[in-house]
Amino acid sequence: MSSAIIQDAQVQKHFLNVSHKALCRYIDQLQIALHRYSSHHEIIPPRLVDTTMNGSTTHLIMPVLDDVFSGLKWLGYNPQGGLGFVGAVTVTDPSSGSLIGVVQAKQLTGVRTALASCIGIRNELSAFKKKTSITVFGTGLQSFWHVFVCAKLLEGRDIAVNVIYRSSPMDTTLLKDHLPSLKVAQFQLSDTAQVRNKVSESNIIFGCVPSTEPSILQEYLEASSVPEYTYISLIGSYKSHMHECDSALVEQFKQQNVQILVDSKEHTLIEAGELIDANVEPTQLLEIGNLELNKPPPKSKCKNGKLVTLCKIVGLAIMDVSMAKTLLADLSN
């Protein structure tokens, strides 16, 4: 059997044309992989971070060793290169170690994170009515895939998307081409009044920007009791000093003894400033892998009665390896 190499362009094309049914299958497959992680944390050994001998490039090597999912995500970052993190996901046969295939990591990372963010949404599709408002903070690849995957998942609804940007608006060409009925409006982050309104009126909020100052505030959610439920997933911040939502929102979950949804208790309590500064304990977190299939995610209640789910994702290599394995099988057929 020959091994396949899948380029970023192929990953992008595949998911831009994916059906609603296939998308749900990918989400379910990812939840199964996260369940394996939550049942056996040791299948993700410690990652290796080191620089090349000349010091120009940092490499991150992230292995996965499991009876079902086996492989490696390898990323390199050269600040002078202007390419961001570049790399690949290698998938091997767990029994023999033989190579199954390689998938370039850039598009795959964006897709798998968006799929993970949408697991809680997938488990409670009925909570989102005919008209649904999505707000995304950020304009990059992660933001794009969060909008695309979520809109595809909520197919058949009248969806309005609000993009909150810092300096430059999102290029919406692909969204218009593949989701022509999608209504997209863009607002600058500095326009506090608009940000407040969009957060308060949104059914779904995605935070996809590394931030030291939070933009998603509890008081914004309490500015309007409509909609009755808001699902929030934060994926942008990845260091202990970063915050996408404020401490008041996290405290709301703590005080009501409602768990926050995460991909990994261990890793979020090292990397997620929102949780660290609020002194969140592991027992106050629920790993996505321990969320039962089709079971609604936890919800806290604002003073105005609005229900809120909060999800924080920092990313795990098993997400990449499991999605790469499924993608390799699908494209080979």
From TrEMBL:
Q: Which Pfam families match?
A: OCD_Mu_crystall (PF02423)
Q: Look up the domain of life of the source.
A: Eukaryota
One GO cellular-component annotation of the UniProt record comes to: cytoplasm
Please give the family membership noted in the entry. Belongs to the ornithine cyclodeaminase/mu-crystallin family.
Name of protein: LAQU0S02e04918g1_1
- Which species does this protein come from? Lachancea quebecensis
